[in-house]
Amino acid sequence: MRSRRSYFSIVTFVITAGLAWSAVATAQT
Q1: Whether residue 10 has pLDDT greater than 70
Q2: Is the whole-model pTM more than 0.90?
Q3: CA dist., res. 19 & res. 25, Å (int)
Q4: Is the dihedral angle over the CA atoms 5, 10, 13, 14 positive or is it negative?
Q5: How far apart are the C-alpha atoms of 14 and 29, rounded to whole Å?
């Protein structure tokens, strides 16, 4: 299940990046 763990890691990264981008967008607006 190495691929599944990698997928989970990617999902976590995407969520973190999304939250960070949302915070930046809110700050700029």
Answers
A1: yes
A2: no
A3: 10
A4: negative
A5: 22
Return the CA Rg of the chain.
Answer: 13
What is the end-to-end Cα distance of the chain in Å, rounded? 42
State the CB neighbour count (10 A cutoff) for residue 7.
11
Amino acid at 9: S
Residue 15 has pLDDT above 90, yes or no: yes
pLDDT at 18: 98
Q: CA 5, CA 12: separation in Å to the nearest integer?
A: 11
Q: How far apart are CA 19 and CA 12, in angstroms?
A: 11
